Amino acid sequence: MPASHLNQLIAALPLQRGASEPLFRQLYAAIKLAVLDGRMSPGMQLPPTRDFCRLLAVSRQTVLNAYALLTAEGYLDGAVGRGTFVSREVPAAVAAPATAAPGLLRPLSARGQGVVTAMRQVAFHRGPLRAFRVGMPRIDHFPFDVWNRLEARRRRRPDHQFGYGDPAGYLPLRELLCVYLKASRGVQCTPQQIVITSGSQQALFLLSTILLAPGDAAWMESPGYRGASGPLRAAGARVFPVPVDAQGLDVAYGVAHCPQAKLAYVTPSHQMPLGVSMSLPRRLALLAWAAHNKAWLVEDDYDSEYRYSGAPLASLQSLDRAGCVVYVGTLSKVLFPGLRLGYMVAPPALAEALVQAKAVMDRHTAIVPQMALADFIAEGHFGRHIRRTRDSNAERRDLLVRGLAHELGDQLACGPADSGLELCAYFRGDHDEEAVSRAGLARGIELRPLGHYADPAAGPECATPPGLLLGFAAIPPAEMAHGLQELGRILRGR
Description:
about 500 residues, 4-stranded antiparallel sheet, Aspartate Aminotransferase, domain 2, alpha/beta, 8-stranded mixed sheet
């Protein structure tokens, strides 16, 4: 390159004087980019530092510092008395100008593409809270002052437990959860069977990954929780939709049409989204099928704490005698979603494998929140919070049920409403779910169509009457009243 062209190139290097980034770092980045995109080719001699200073009006030390960094990283070669050159070791392929369009970059692997696309159909919360957002607990009811005090106390007393932890989780927390699950859900376990996860979503991904081979069949409730079918598909499983009726998962249908499945995902205590509970005959039939076929059952018990009529139902795991049920729980609905703490209760023979898989994924879940939660439970705050929140949820559930009956009884029929954070409501008239949902967003309310939870590959036997899933736990009374008014206007075409 002629000296005049090189001088023009150097003079044009972008430097922002007065910026927070030092000038030598800016100069380093600009020369590095010029080398990588081929404007400064391998072997090219750069001007002496004094000339470089004059062209850019910077100090010599700025140039020397930039040269030193570039030389250390292998972009420049130089010696006193010989000059400074672009290194000939920079591969020509790297130094050549990039001409490929972004769409022609190397594709993801088939497995990577499966992971990326698996959750595309899952709806995520966006924007401020509004009626009738589903899956949200009442966060303003949580005693954050107590929680912050517990976390601060732990941080003030760091000890050896602040290093790398047990992949299974903080042992005192697992011991406390063991006691709690036995008392509240009838779960039969030891602390060694419990694995703490970063939310139940991580638990579902781990289980899908280590229990299924690509092509294995897995039963999935339809309609059902799309956040569970995502990990199954990401693992390469063949998801087989099984219909749900008033007694829960139709086990006989699954046995008749896909008896060779290796896993079944179920929400037996409170089916998502229909709200029904699996009957005892169905539970026993499901356990018998799994034991006979050496299949796994993943029991997602995502909100069993919030049952408003009678005691919480016993878990499916409490009936398991063949070691085939993995119980998955979350603290997102009991405490707050941002905590990202969940857990698995595995059969003894599977527990160690899950611990090792967890270690591969992220070594262990953050330790301070686990410690704070252990203190939160041990000091009685956990039990008090559940009782207080259950009462609050019941009040808001009653408010929504009464509001639907009074304002929209001619338009909607309520489904089961004895547990959970939301309820389903079926259209009495001829309404398009998606059109109603879009109209709701335009009016500032969230209306989740029941069809969102249906598997697109499911047959007519999995069809659910059109309707909506309406969240109530996090919705203040005034916002709920506003949402009911807007929903009434939409359904009546006003």
